[in-house]
């Protein structure tokens, strides 16, 4: 077609962040960013759905995308390991000194973080499946590091619990109900629109704080500073509530100790989201960063990081010690559980970014031999193949 038939070139919207001009894709609006260039919590024009302001629609899928993905999955031989990944006994009630931060991985995105003597829980999922149904849906192939009954009987009380978003592998109402009834969580922090889900299963109004991106509060009882930060993701619990709730990553700070919870996110292609989080709130003593559920890449990449992206996030947010999450627990994508760990090993360049065994803890700043650590997981995976 001759170029004269094309409409005049409409310049792409831009924003400026720290003297860098960033072009946004067509359909984005620079009004969705604040005067410093930070993305604000953004909804569509009818205020019915949240959107990703730096790349609207990036996580949307067509029915034909879903069909192609399922067809590809069915055409492949199902690969599964016969046994679980290695586990170690959880050291309940998570001892640590006030001046040392530590993190314990209980499986998927469920972590216990000790920060300045306070106790933080992330995305608690202890149920056998991550699904709206108890009889079908992705079934865990590794048991959680401990049970909620063990936490209750040990008298564990988490100062705060942060929840990244409403997907079933991150927000499990059975686990929330049990933890709440057992008096295990003093205060829940959730992204905008999510409070009603918790209150719907009996959590008291005053025990839940709903937040939007970049909002920062001091938890009244623990003095922990809690910051809701952006993520590139989407939300849905039933077919008619897509993106009616917000998705987030979280920063938790006290004194010099800082924790970044990556929850579940994609890595923006042309937008420095994690550098922004690092600039504002880093460097972090500890981070939990997702490495799994990334195959097939063409389908998964907008909403899920792969191990290379995860290492990029570790660098962008300036994390001292990072722990791999969102792998080794639920069969959510086409990769086998050990593959994210293999790739994590390939993309590291001497960073302290480790894949723990289920139930294992690590302290911030403890010198980790990641090669040895990751190799041990891989060896165990081969034995079980
Ligand atoms: Zn997830």
Automatic annotation (TrEMBL):
Species this protein is from: Triparma columacea
Pfam families the UniProt entry points to: Lactamase_B_2
Protein name, entry field: Metallo-beta-lactamase domain-containing protein
Alphabetized SUPFAM superfamilies for the sequence: Metallo-hydrolase/oxidoreductase
UniProt cross-references to InterPro entries, sorted A to Z: Metallo-B-lactamas, RibonucZ/Hydroxyglut_hydro
GO cellular component terms, semicolon-separated: cytoplasm
Residues covered by the Metallo-beta-lactamase domain: 120-327
